[in-house]
Write a structure and sequence with these properties.
336 residues, Nucleotidyltransferase, domain 5, 5-stranded mixed β-sheet, globular, binds 5'-O-[(R)-(carboxyoxy)(hydroxy)phosphoryl]adenosine, 10 helices, binds zinc ion, single chain, 2 domains, 19% strand, alpha/beta
Length: 336
């Protein structure tokens, strides 16, 4: 079964053709980073307009790269939640029009479910059940993946996501958007012990996370240096920030794996590209004999191949949308 998948939840316009959930025939991503960089973050209105401009060409290219025309496609899958509402609506409406005019089923796909599915592309043998750490710009979740379409949230951030925290810490240090990505690139040789940053203790759950205190601490440190007219090492502060964020993530996923008895762990989402997180997850899993799954770097950030993968399993479970499908800025992964 060949699915044309569309993703437009944030600042990437993406389309892909995926066969049987695992085999990527094409994967096209048109990034808007250059447009948002001057603002230091994604401007939702600009994102929607740019999706509108790019989506037709991106879908055409995905079909051409897969050597396919719409006649060869069995269904259209699209990200419908969660994300920037205007951005999502561009993809959803385009997918609705395409599905209707070409008489194909329309499959709605939850963004975080699709991030998890990026692991099915990179690791052909991976099957649920497993434990997933989903870390992106908008979300940080620890999820029990019970089947391809059944999920249970074990823990999540109570405020900022890991990516959001690193983006904002980077911004106050004068590093360009996307800060998390650039922080990783620029701070590889920094001393992660140079600054002692707060690690939140979240009451009520062993698995929930919180990153807003850490973000504020980094902002305050930078402001104090600035007020005194003193300089600091961006490399050291950046490395300390990454070290603290990744420590929190690894500590909680480690507790969840041990207490719930998981032997398989998958990491997903934009922050799964982080080199320190990948190293720490490798060590955790090697020490405990866990199987570790991480997407190839090209599937960590937003892309449509992962939507085509999850869309396939959603379709198999009977999930097909009618033409009144709406987009939603927020939606629980368990419901989506
Ligand atoms: O999944 P994603 O592409 O979009 C959302 O669904 O949010 O994740 C984007 C986030 C951004 O916060 C970006 O800074 C972060 O992922 N990111 C990274 C790295 N690459 C992307 N954070 C840390 N290290 C990286 N190498
Ligand atoms: Zn994402």
């Amino acid at each position: 079964m060949k699915i044309l998948a569309i993703e437009s939840s944030c600042d990437d316009t993406a389309a892909a053709v995926v066969e049987d959930g695992r085999n990527v025939l094409s994967n096209v991503v048109s990034s808007q980073i250059k447009e948002h960089i001057v603002y230091g973050g994604v401007v939702p209105e600009i994102a929607s307009r740019m999706h509108t401009q790019a989506i037709c060409a991106v879908c055409r290219k995905a079909l051409a790269d897969a050597n396919a025309v719409m006649k060869d496609i069995d269904a259209v899958a699209v990200t419908y939640a969660p994300g920037l509402i205007g951005a999502l609506l561009v993809g959803v409406n385009f997918a609705k029009g395409l599905a209707y005019s070409c008489e194909k089923p329309l499959i709605p796909v939850h963004h975080l479910r699709s991030h998890i599915a990026s692991n099915y592309i990179s690791s052909k043998s991976l099957e649920p059940p497993f434990l997933a750490l989903v870390v992106s710009g908008g979300h940080s979740h620890i999820v029990s993946v019970e089947s391809y379409t059944q999920f249970k949230v074990i823990g999540k951030t109570l405020d900022d996501a890991a990516g959001e925290c690193m983006d904002k810490c980077a911004r106050v240090m004068g590093i360009d958007y996307p800060g998390g990505y650039n922080l990783d690139r620029l701070c590889k040789n920094g001393n992660p012990r140079a600054f002692v940053l707060p690690k939140p203790k979240v009451e009520g759950s062993d698995y929930n996370l919180s990153f807003s205190g850490l973000k504020t601490a980094v902002i305050n440190i930078v402001h104090k240096f600035d007020q005194k007219g003193e300089t600091y090492s961006v490399e050291d502060l950046g490395a300390s920030c990454i070290d603290t964020v990744t420590d929190c993530l690894v500590k909680n996923i480690s507790k969840a794996a041990a207490n719930y008895g998981f032997k398989k762990i998958a990491v997903a989402g934009g922050v799964s590209a982080n080199s320190v997180l990948r190293k720490k997850m490798n060590s955790l899993c090697a020490e405990n004999g866990y199987e570790l799954y991480m997407p190839e770097l090209k599937y960590c950030g937003d892309n449509a191949a992962m939507v085509g993968s999850q869309g396939y399993y959603e379709f198999l479970s009977g999930k097909v949308a009618s033409l009144d499908l709406n987009a939603y800025a927020t939606m629980n992964i368990e419901i989506g």
